[in-house]
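Good morning C.,

I know you're traveling, so I'll keep this short. The sequence:
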Amino acid sequence: MATKMVCPNGCNAYFSTIAHIAQDWIVDAFGNFVGSANDSTVVTHNPHFGNLWTCMKCGAEGQPKDIPGDGSDNPTEIIAG
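The tokens, ready to paste straight into the viewer:
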């Protein structure tokens, strides 16, 4: 079984959610952000189904759904805004 997020309105679109990244910063002597040292980022935590997922088409909150298989054969239509 795999889990995928679905829009309760059946949009079959992408979602907006939180992922955690690490980035090199330039900071002052107190650790306050001054700027980015570069554009490179590293994902430290991928999105989690416990987070809020917002449908990019209609704005509804996504709902997790168990599906058969590993999820690799379930493409998502590209619909934004």
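Safe travels,
E.
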